[in-house]
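Tokens for chain A. Residues wanted.
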């Protein structure tokens, strides 16, 4: 079975590199010559002893085929114009005069390196230490730098300048951070500088709106701290100037407060502040100015920046346990999860309203039958039940050294250098720790996860292992010889295949009979076809919708669909946050050989299913005796969904889009009140859309009519499209973009009815910087689906966000098609910070059984962004710990 989500295949080798095996055509020629010589030797140089007619040795004719298609760059993407790949177009962007103009919002892939670091390529010898970008930013717009290189391999920083005066506005200069971020204080034109003090790295630079989101960087110029003061704590193993009562950590520093064994306050003497040229204090750059030539700053800004440089230097020392600014604090409201503002998919199903009633109960368990979970992920730690289990029976597939055991930890599932950690993503959507000032939110905050590991190496698992996991979760007899004290209440299956199995149907029926609610992903083949287990009787089949509640382009549909939920769509960024509109949740990254806790965007029905499972857990929290039959009845009555598409059940949405607020109220009160429901609950027109539709429907048994529809902005109109005598039906929403100047705009549409009033937020963005999406120079790979070897490759520069490709002379066989960039020139496409795509989608690459010419093999490419977990702002990482793995990496 495969699972339905969006992740990329990392480290797919490009063919044709000098250190790689000979290109496929050359290998074929060498093989042909070798075989010809053997035939001549054995056929003519030896007496075969045959006295009959010679056999016909003419090889059969093999028909060869052509494959072609178009790759589309995801909206709001851009590429650094001077990456290390020598085949990519080149325009330097190393100074204010050379600044590369980028659109906003945007996700940009880039690369910087110090001389003689990183991979051989265009910038290896002389280096490309900084990239400069020009952007029109809105007030509060967030700039996020995600650094791809493993920690210790590179140190990248972020600077923000006023474009006209070159005044330094802000900087984020954490030591060996995985992420740096800043915000524009006012609307205007800015220069953004990405610079490497040490090493080489790909990166992504994301610019967009993210309401109420925090800037991650701990050493940020705009933070409120006392200039010239530093809080320092010495290392227990290597105390500063051992034996001194009040040790001084560095020359030019004066002790102000604190005692041995605890954090102490120091002042930086005036002689060490105020140099005319700001220079790096770290080991990466000792004499070169970090700032753009001509940059200016006032005296206070200079003093603050020097303070941050001093702290960054202290953090590089092994005898310093922590060093940080002396921040000035004010009373603030408790912050929410850092990345919750990027989780557009929760307001889409009215989760915030449901949370006013319940956030889940700890005694409600959701079994996630998947790849296992990263049990120590900060948003999952303490959420995984002790009765979790690993049912992968084949040690080779398990990749953890043994067969079934009680350890559900996901050790990785991919042999190409990067794993999906799919189960971790699914589990985070169901029940990530929430309101903990960390990472993301989960649907059912307080519910717990029973992690059942059944998918392993190669992203696969067998029917038998999966069914053992189902049996265990339901408290049925299974191969572990044990059952949990309390079975799971809900099972989530974000996996599937096309083949019906009566054995699978029977086991799932037994689990349902035991009282377990079973939720499964409908599949990502964009076809009217059943996918199992979602299509089995008694299983809730979940299709996927995008940010505007439209059917996701990849989602399966048909008569087996029961309900719809957010699955995302990587082709757009309609809410303008700078990221593709995928589902954000917990994840992992082992591309550098060690598992790092991160947060990732996936798309797919695999992401939709845990939304439904989480809502079922909330319903179970307010109605402990909720049965599978009860949930079916609520679905079929329309009491817990927003009815989209044709009235009643349809093949795209099933009974409708799950509504968490309606679901929790219905479960608590046993019936839903009569209310007006508007779907979608919010509209994002992004940078290009001018119109969309809304659906107005009655929820509940009573009568209802719409009395008034208004919009509070002159540029926005709402008109009835197809409505009945009660005003229920569809409405057209139109924005007059031509009358608006550059900026972000928000409005509210109000529907008043005889029972209630519904407000629908509307947002759009106007930008005069209209650059076509550009994901960079692409390599398109034709991969043998059995051996995972690249058998052919084409290079495409692209034009107007399109990359047309064609393979000719392809022999019959089974293939997959991937495409991506190689900004660091390491001969692997799709690394972090690089673009990646696959036909039909990167979540489920389609296997082409080639027996004819194929055209129209179109798909989307987008940048691979992994958001790291929060880091300790006082962490010290001594330079001696760096192994410079990037320098040792062998080209494949």
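Reply:
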């Amino acid at each position: 079975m495969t699972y339905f989500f969006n992740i990329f295949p990392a480290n797919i080798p490009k063919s044709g590199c000098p250190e790689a095996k000979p290109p496929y055509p050359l290998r074929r020629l060498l093989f042909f010559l070798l075989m010809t010589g053997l035939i001549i030797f054995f056929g003519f140089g030896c007496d075969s002893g045959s006295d009959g007619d010679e056999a016909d040795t003419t090889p059969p004719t093999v028909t060869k085929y052509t494959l072609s298609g178009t790759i589309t760059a995801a909206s709001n993407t851009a590429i650094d114009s001077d990456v290390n790949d020598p085949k990519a177009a080149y325009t330097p962007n190393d100074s204010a005069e050379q600044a590369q103009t980028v659109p906003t919002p945007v996700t940009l892939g880039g690369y910087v390196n110090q001389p003689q670091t990183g991979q051989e390529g265009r910038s290896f010898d002389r280096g490309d230490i900084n990239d400069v970008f020009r952007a029109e930013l809105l007030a509060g717009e967030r700039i996020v730098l995600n650094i791809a290189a493993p920690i210790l391999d590179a140190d990248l920083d972020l600077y923000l300048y006023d474009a006209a005066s070159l005044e330094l506005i802000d900087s984020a200069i954490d030591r060996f951070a995985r992420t740096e971020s800043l915000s524009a204080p006012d609307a205007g034109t800015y220069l953004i500088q990405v610079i490497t003090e040490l090493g080489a790295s790909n990166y992504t630079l994301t610019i967009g709106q993210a309401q109420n989101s925090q800037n991650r960087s701990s050493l940020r110029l705009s933070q409120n701290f006392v200039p010239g003061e530093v809080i320092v704590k010495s290392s227990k193993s290597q105390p500063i100037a051992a034996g001194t009562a009040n040790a001084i950590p560095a020359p030019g520093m004066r002790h102000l407060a604190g005692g041995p064994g605890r954090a102490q306050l120091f002042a930086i003497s005036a002689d060490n502040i105020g140099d005319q040229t700001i220079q790096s204090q770290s080991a990466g750059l000792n004499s070169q100015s970090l700032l753009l030539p001509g940059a200016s700053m006032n005296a206070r800004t200079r003093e603050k920046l020097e303070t941050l440089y001093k702290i960054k230097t202290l953090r590089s020392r092994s005898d310093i346990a922590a060093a940080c600014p002396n921040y000035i604090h004010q009373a603030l409201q408790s912050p929410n999860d850092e990345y919750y503002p990027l989780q557009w998919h929760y307001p889409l199903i009215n989760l915030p309203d449901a949370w006013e009633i319940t956030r889940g109960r700890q005694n409600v368990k959701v079994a996630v039958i998947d790849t296992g979970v990263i049990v120590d992920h900060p948003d999952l730690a303490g959420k995984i039940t002790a009765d979790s289990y690993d049912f992968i029976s084949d040690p080779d597939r398990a990749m953890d050294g043994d067969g079934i055991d009680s350890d559900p930890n996901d050790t990785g599932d991919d042999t190409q250098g990067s794993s999906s950690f799919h189960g971790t993503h699914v589990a985070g959507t169901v029940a990530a720790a929430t309101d903990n000032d960390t990472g993301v939110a989960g649907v059912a905050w307080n519910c717990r996860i029973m992690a059942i590991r059944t998918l392993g190496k190669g992203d696969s698992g067998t029917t038998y292992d999966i069914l053992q996991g189902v049996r265990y979760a339901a408290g049925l007899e299974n191969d572990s010889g044990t059952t949990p004290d309390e079975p799971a209440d809900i099972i989530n299956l974000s996996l599937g295949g096309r083949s019906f199995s009566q054995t699978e149907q029977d086991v799932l029926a037994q689990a349902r009979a035991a009282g377990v609610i079973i939720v499964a992903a409908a599949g990502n083949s964009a076809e009217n076809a059943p996918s199992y287990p979602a299509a089995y009787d008694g299983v809730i089949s979940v299709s996927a919708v995008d940010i505007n509640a439209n059917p996701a382009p990849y989602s399966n549909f048909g008569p087996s669909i029961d309900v719809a939920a957010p699955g995302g769509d990587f082709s757009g960024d309609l809410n303008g946050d700078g990221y593709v509109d995928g589902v954000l949740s917990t994840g992992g990254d082992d591309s550098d050989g060690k598992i790092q806790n991160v947060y990732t965007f996936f798309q797919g029905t695999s992401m939709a299913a845990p939304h439904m499972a989480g809502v079922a857990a909330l319903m179970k929290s307010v109605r402990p005796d909720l049965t599978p039959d009860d949930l079916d009845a609520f679905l079929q009555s329309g009491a817990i969904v927003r009815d989209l598409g044709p009235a009643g059940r349809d093949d795209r949405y099933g009974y409708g889009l799950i509504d968490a607020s309606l679901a929790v109220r219905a479960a608590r009160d046993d019936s839903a009140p009569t209310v007006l429901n508007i779907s979608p609950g919010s509209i994002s027109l992004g940078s290009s859309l001018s119109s969309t539709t809304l659906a107005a429907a009655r929820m509940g048994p009573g009568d209802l009519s719409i009395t008034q529809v208004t919009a509070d902005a002159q540029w926005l109109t709402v008109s009835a499209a197809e409505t009945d005598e009660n005003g229920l039906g569809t409405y057209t929403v139109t924005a007059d973009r031509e009358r608006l100047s550059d900026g972000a705009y928000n409005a509210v549409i109000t529907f008043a009815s005889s029972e209630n009033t519904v407000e629908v937020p509307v947002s759009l963005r106007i930008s005069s910087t209209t650059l076509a999406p550009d994901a960079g120079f692409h390599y398109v790979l034709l991969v043998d689906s059995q051996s995972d070897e690249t058998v052919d490759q084409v290079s495409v520069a692209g034009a107007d966000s399109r990359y047309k490709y064609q393979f000719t002379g392809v022999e019959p066989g089974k293939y997959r098609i991937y495409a991506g960039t190689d900004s660091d020139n390491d001969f692997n496409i799709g690394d972090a910070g690089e673009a990646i795509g696959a036909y039909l989608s990167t979540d489920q690459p389609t296997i082409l059984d080639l027996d004819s010419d194929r055209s129209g093999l179109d798909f989307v490419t987008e940048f691979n962004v992994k958001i790291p977990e929060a880091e300790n702002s006082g962490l010290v990482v001594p330079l001696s710990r760096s192994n410079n793995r990037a320098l040792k990496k062998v080209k494949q």
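The two ends are 29 Å apart (CA to CA). The chain has twelve helices and 43 strands.
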